[in-house]
């Protein structure tokens, strides 16, 4: 049991799970029914689940999906893509453009999503090429699309913010009749399982971590480092397309100015809170997804405490700074030494370091 506790204390999931635990305890003390789930009927007459817990899981869906892709980019390239919000606006614009030019049916929705996915992958490949082939730091390379992305999205639909109305789209953005769980939550689960299976049954995790830890050594072992980096940006493109399509389906229109605005910052924070090094290397997708839900839970908590929307970001920043500092290597090392002193095993702790 002691070995299991020691192994867990060194896990990347310690900080995100501890942070989530603190949020849960704080909210239960403040309001014992904060996480209660109730069964209600929505405007369409369907029986659905609602409550703060459902709002957290539902509201963080786009962020959780993008955090998965951001984790792979961070792990392989040692940097972050700050253009994901703008790329989502482009993918969402393509999604809407295809829908508006056809009668909306499920095959057309699928075709529209695939079109948005292809465009997002192309832009992701552009970013990946700048990083992998031209050795440009990721944040600088993606600054181009961060700046130009939303104007491109605005141009795709002729300088308009068109709406799309369809019960099928409403199913994607809210609830499928007969299923009480919001559809975005189901999409996150399905996508997370698919990515986990890919990482489990291929060498993608190993290669990504190897490139992020030491690119030169990875190349010497025969790994195509540039290809791994490019692939991670392409996967992020898929994540962006999914999130952009969900965002459009939620509100039934494409607003290039506000669609997933500032989500790139939340995605980077989710990766950091998830215990991942922003310098690349070993990663935990589970930690990043938990980080996304922590950010959304913190937002819902602040709103429940009647904090004004203009002040929410400031309060979030304070809490997130504290979480990131706690998860820093220096604090972790100090915690391990303190644990060793309390357990009376300082020698063993030193050897494991």
Give a topology summary.
Layout lengths: L1 H8 L4 H17 L7 E4 L5 E4 L1 H8 L1 H17 L6 H17 L5 H27 L5 H4 L1 H14 L10 H7 L9 H19 L2 H10 L1 H6 L4 H27 L11 H11 L11 H20 L4 H18 L2 H15 L2 H7 L1
Antiparallel strand pairs: 1-2
Helix pairs in contact: 2-15, 3-15, 4-10, 4-11, 4-13, 4-14, 4-15, 5-6, 5-8, 5-13, 6-13, 9-13, 11-13, 14-15, 15-16, 17-18
How would you characterize this protein structure?
By secondary structure, this protein is mainly alpha-helical. The protein has 18 helices and two strands. It has a two-stranded antiparallel sheet with strand order 1-2. Helix 4 (61-77) runs antiparallel to helix 13 (225-251), helix 11 packs across helix 13 and helix 17 packs antiparallel against helix 18 (346-352). The longest helix has 27 residues, at 106-132. The radius of gyration is 21 Å and the shape is globular.
Work out the strand percent: under 5%
Give the biggest beta sheet: 2 strands, antiparallel
Number of strands: 2
* Overall geometric form: globular
Q: Radius of gyration in whole Å, from Cα?
A: 21 Å
What is this entry, summarized?
By secondary structure, this protein is mainly α. It has helices at residues 2-9, 14-30, 52-59, 61-77, 84-100, 106-132, 138-141, 143-156, 167-173, 183-201, 204-213, 215-220, 225-251, 263-273, 285-304, 309-326, 329-343, 346-352, and strands at 38-41, 47-50. The chain has a two-stranded antiparallel ribbon with strand order 1-2.
């Amino acid at each position: 049991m002691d070995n299991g506790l020691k192994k867990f204390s060194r896990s990347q999931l310690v900080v995100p799970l501890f942070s989530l635990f603190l949020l849960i305890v704080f909210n239960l003390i403040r309001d014992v029914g904060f996480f209660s789930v109730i069964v209600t009927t929505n405007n369409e007459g369907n029986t659905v689940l609602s409550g703060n817990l459902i709002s957290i899981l539902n509201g963080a869906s786009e962020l959780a999906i993008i955090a998965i892709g951001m984790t792979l980019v961070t792990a392989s390239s040692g940097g972050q893509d700050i253009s994901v919000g703008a790329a989502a606006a482009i993918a969402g614009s393509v999604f809407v453009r295809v829908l508006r030019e056809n009668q909306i049916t499920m095959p057309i929705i699928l075709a529209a999503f695939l079109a948005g996915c292809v465009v997002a992958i192309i832009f992701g490949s552009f970013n990946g090429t700048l990083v992998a082939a031209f050795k440009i730091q990721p944040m600088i390379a993606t600054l181009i699309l961060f700046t130009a992305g939303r104007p491109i999205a605005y141009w795709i639909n002729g300088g308009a913010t068109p709406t799309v109305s369809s019960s099928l789209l409403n199913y994607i953005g809210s609830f499928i009749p007969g299923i009480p769980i919001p559809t975005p939550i189901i999409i996150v689960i399905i996508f997370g399982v698919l990515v986990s299976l890919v990482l489990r049954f291929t060498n993608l995790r190993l290669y990504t971590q190897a490139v992020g830890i030491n690119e030169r050594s990875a190349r010497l072992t025969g790994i195509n480092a540039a290809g791994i980096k490019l692939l991670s940006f392409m996967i992020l493109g898929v994540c962006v397309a999914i999130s952009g399509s969900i965002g459009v389906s939620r509100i039934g229109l494409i607003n290039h100015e506000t669609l997933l605005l500032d989500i790139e910052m939340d995605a980077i924070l989710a990766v950091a809170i998830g215990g991942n090094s922003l310098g690349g290397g070993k990663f935990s997708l589970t930690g990043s997804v938990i980080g996304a839900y922590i950010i959304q839970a913190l937002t819902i908590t602040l709103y429940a405490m009647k904090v004004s929307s203009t002040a929410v970001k400031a309060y979030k920043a304070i809490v997130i700074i504290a979480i990131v500092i706690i998860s820093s290597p220096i604090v972790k090392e100090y915690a391990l030494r303190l644990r060793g002193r309390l357990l009376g095993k300082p020698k063993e702790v030193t050897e494991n370091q």
